[in-house]
């Protein structure tokens, strides 16, 4: 231990290792490979069962199960389910993002309009076609639904001031309109529209 301080070997573990070398002449395991307590959860049939549940079926999106649902359905502990997914199946978790849904009719309509635009304008003008849009963002302060008020035991609830017990919100929250334009050449800066201003061809 003094010769190799950077190894940070514990004294007890080093003694066991030296005794093992004295007895067997090697540091290999005394028994055959795979000795020890046998696996009960991370076995082949359980891994296949988790594999079927954690991934969506063919041509059936959103049919997968969460780790907690898999644990309840198969009887495997949540920790073992997590280890099977990460270590045995070699899967990683990807977070979904919220986006606008496009139906088949939407995609067909957009495809037709793009073809009409390409016919209307020559290829040299396509990069200079700008598309603008506006979005209203509601400015609402976040609130904690678990907010609690503590009062002495002798104080009754009706004796507490109402402004301390109520969490109020305005009927119409403040909002701001933001406008931006995009094209094949890039995008414009964000433009904050003043309240009451209507966005038209002149304002845009």
Q: Could you describe the 3D structure shown?
A:
- It is a single chain.
- The longest helix has 17 residues, at 104-120.
- Helix 2 (44-54) packs across helix 4.
- This protein has seven helices and four strands.
- Strands 1, 2, 3 and 4 form a four-stranded antiparallel beta sheet that branches.
- The termini are far apart.
- The protein has helices spanning 11-24, 44-54, 67-74, 78-88, 104-120, 123-126, 162-165; strands spanning 131-139, 174-183, 186-187, 191-193.
- It has four domains: 1-31, no CATH class; 38-96; 100-126, no CATH class; 130-204, no CATH class.
- A hairpin with a 2-residue loop joins strand 2 and strand 3 (186-187).
- The radius of gyration is 33 Å and the shape is extended.
- The chain is an alpha+beta fold and 204 residues long.
Keywords:
single chain; 204 residues; 4 domains; four-stranded antiparallel beta sheet; 12% strand
Would you summarize the structure shown here?
This protein has 204 residues and is of the alpha+beta class. Helix content is 34%, strand content 12%.
